[in-house]
Design goal:
This protein is mainly alpha-helical. The termini are far apart. It holds the Pfam family TM_HPP. This is HPP family protein.
């Protein structure tokens, strides 16, 4: 009967196993990783028709212009940098699951609540920025409201030391306005049915 070889103490540690799993060992592993990267990189990028590009242009212009107009004339801050990324999703790829109202509104609000909660608890230290983004992503995944601009909202909230007002304006109000503009534009102008689903 063959005796089991005893591993040195450091080889039993989680860190050692993690590093060993992450680092490709040997020429064969490096070759496999290289071929996988080159194979993925050879895929053709997504390309829209010129008509769709023009519609995305006018739709995003309309959405951001409405937010800016309402910000100036209402006295409430309804515009935030992450809404630029939201406009890309809702007007350029409105069929995407991440561009649906549940994700736009829910994901944005979850990210805003997350970052404000963490700012209230820990301040705006550098590590809080990382924690806010990671926590927002995890909560959006758990609630099926994943919305990429939510990561930017979480980061913006920490860097600006946002208060609870940040959740209502610009995030909730701005998200609602953008979704409304998208519904009107996509259904009446571009002829694309939006949304694909609400919940």
């Amino acid at each position: 009967m063959q005796r089991k070889r005893k591993l040195p103490g450091y080889q039993k540690s989680f860190t050692f196993k993690l590093i060993r799993g992450l680092l490709p060992l040997g020429r064969q592993s490096i070759t496999q990783v290289k071929s996988r990267i080159l194979k993925e990189a050879s895929a053709k990028p997504f390309w829209d028709s010129y008509q769709q590009i023009l519609l995305s242009y006018f739709g995003s212009f309309l959405g951001i212009a409405v937010l800016t107009y309402l910000t100036i004339h209402s006295g409430y801050p309804l515009i935030a940098a992450p809404f630029g990324a939201t406009a890309v999703l809702v007007f350029a790829v409105p069929d995407s699951p991440m561009a649906q109202p549940r994700n736009v509104i829910g994901g944005s609000c979850i990210a805003a609540i997350t970052c404000v909660s963490l700012v209230q608890l820990f301040g705006s230290e550098a590590w809080v920025m990382a924690l806010a983004v990671a926590t927002a992503i995890k909560l959006m995944q758990l609630t099926r409201t994943l919305h990429p601009p939510g990561g930017a909202i979480a980061l913006l909230g920490v860097t600006s030391q946002a208060s609870w007002d940040f959740v209502w304006t610009p995030i909730l109000a701005g998200s609602l306005v953008l979704v409304f503009c998208t519904i009107i534009f996509n259904n009446l102008v571009s002829g694309k049915p939006y949304p694909k689903h609400w919940f």
